[in-house]
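ARCHIVE CARD
Drawer: 12
Card no.: 0347
Subject: one protein chain, sequence and derived structure
Cross-reference: see card 0346
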Amino acid sequence: MTTLINTDLVLLDANLGTDTTSVIRNLAELVAKTGRASEVAGLFADALAREQKTATGVPGGIAIPHCRSEAVLEPTLAMARLNPAVDFGAKDGPADIVFFIAAPAGADNEHLKLLSKLARSLIKKDFTAALRAAATPADIVALVAEALKDKPKPAVTTATAAAGEAGNGAPGAASGVREAGGGPIAGEASPASQASTTRQKRIVAVTACPTGIAHTYMAADSLVLAAQEAGVDLQVETQGSGAVTPLDPAVIAAADAVIFAVDVDVRGKERFAGKPLVSSPVKRGIDEPAKMIQEAVAASDNPNARRVPHFGAEETAEQKAAASGESLGSKIKKVLLTGVSYMIPFVAGGGLLIALGFLLGGFQIPDFADKILTSNSLANLPTDYPAQALGPLGAYLGAVAFKIGGLSMGFLVPALAGYIAFGIADRPGIAPGFTAGALAVFMDAGFLGGLVGGILAGLAAYWIGTWSVPRWLRGLMPVVIIPLLGSIIASGAMLLFLGAPIAALTVALNNWLTGMSGASAVVLGIILGLMMCFDLGGPVNKVAYAFAVAGLGAGSLANQAPWEIMATVMAAGMVPPLAMALATVLDKKRFSLAERENGKAAWLLGASFISEGAIPFAAADPLRVIPASMLGGAVTGAMTMAFHVTSQAPHGGFFVFFAIGNLGMFALSIVVGTIVAGLAVVALKRWAVRKPVDTLAAAQPVTAAN
């Protein structure tokens, strides 16, 4: 335990500022000063990013900011008793006791157990009262040591075990509240409840948070205490950072309801299929455990309660979103990005194969590929194909690559539509979605048709899935009824009403893009460049990328506008990581050690068109990195459109040079944008300076009573 905390890591009655950012920054600095972190900036950025996901304040005036970070050298606890208290997002007000948990990215299981044990001790009123009464840092260290000691588990008497078998319906499970795989974690059920002739409600729960250190275990203990007070039999599975002990299948089978207090997907959710479900973010399990227990009890008596879906009928995105109170905009964004993310592999492979076909077979290969493949083979190479560099073998292999790539690209719109429908209605939506997408291709409705068709198919499948049908028909619903009726509704609407207008709009859009030249093309390049650099792989970036990829298949020697758009998007997306790599070389002292290391990797990431290579820099300093990146991306986008650079490959950066038209200007555009963005970020770091840590500490001194 002494490796986790010592008196140098304790501040009593300290003024660490008036907001969470100041407190976390000062505690990160404290950890680094004691030699337990390699640098402040990386640890602060990781802890702040975790705080921004979910506030770490919990009832009782406690806050537990925490993270796993590459900057942390050994598992560490830093504790501050604040004066003034600071609001960390708890419902009952600001926190005056803050434990900062800093774990290495690869922390071992034993240390993670200790950190989680401390976190769950913080919901005990006697422990927090002792922390507030402590006179010296040594007292705090002693209290933490006592909290982290292994304590013997209460013995389970024969009578209790027997009562457990009678009340739980699970052999060997003691009545009361306990954690999976262990003894009771909040005492046994009250004697009154054991003696009751009415059967206790039996509930199982899963708690999990992204970091898996603090909230996972605090939510578990809070739910356990609330269940004990309510006379409910509760068993909890904590899916934290350490080893997970699953709930006994017999316990799950006997449960009346399930609670998921989680911020991440539940592992093995199919184990709970069919059980009445109460689901919420993990923090609600800490803030409102009694309400969640009450809701679970009520759900167990409600035949219409929400239930854990059966395997093969997973919850839809809409159901999950509705349960979590997600906004309509967020739901739409998730559904569309689901379609785009599943579509991209078809396009990436297909686009590169088409580009390879041009490289091997020359630019006339589209006109001859089908004839070559039907008339020739490796044993009978084409001899009447127009002369090109690699001769008959190149012509044949080029035709093979081009045809495979073209067939792969043919799935672009159906895959987009199919997986948009999947995002809405899960697996039953896939077949209607693919069908509507194929119909959009047939009607020349293109990308927009796939978008509309996928949404229609998903909504139709979801609606049909809500029908109340006889039990004997339920098995046919996801595999026969929903695909059949969903396809009829969505594809019928496309064919009869929507397909023709969307096709006309698509033709008009393509004609407009084809006719763009001069200033209008440059403006489009600027817009695409700004979008690619705005969120570095996020939704806005993906919209611009999907727009370019969707038109790639329509490109040809006669209509190169779609290829120009693809080149613009790819070139602009390469700028942010390359610019950050350049900036770390130009002015090393403006960047932390971790950022300089990331800068070395960013050269390769940028050259490969992986915009996410700039994310570590943007996370640590978004107000300077993102505007600088957008400036460089806009310059690159304008140049590539102005010089009519083309790309027949949807990904790969410089490594698909053979698919780039006007390669010299492609490279020059990227170099100029990289220099502009790199110089801009260095200038902003020099002259748009945030108040440094030392100044902050001077303005808000860290004082301690002892």
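Annotation on reverse: The chain is about 60% helix and 10% strand. Confidence is low (pLDDT under 50) at residues 153-178, 181-197, 321-325, 691-706.
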